[in-house]
Sequence to fold (38 residues):
Amino acid sequence: MVAIHQIVEKKFQFLIGRLQSIQEFLLQKLQEINFNSL
Fold:
């Protein structure tokens, strides 16, 4: 049970990391778009 729990936890950490990097990327793109539209 512990091993399965650790695997699931690692996968969640990986997904959260991916979501954070995607969020940062989208924020950068939004800032670029806002800057270009001024």
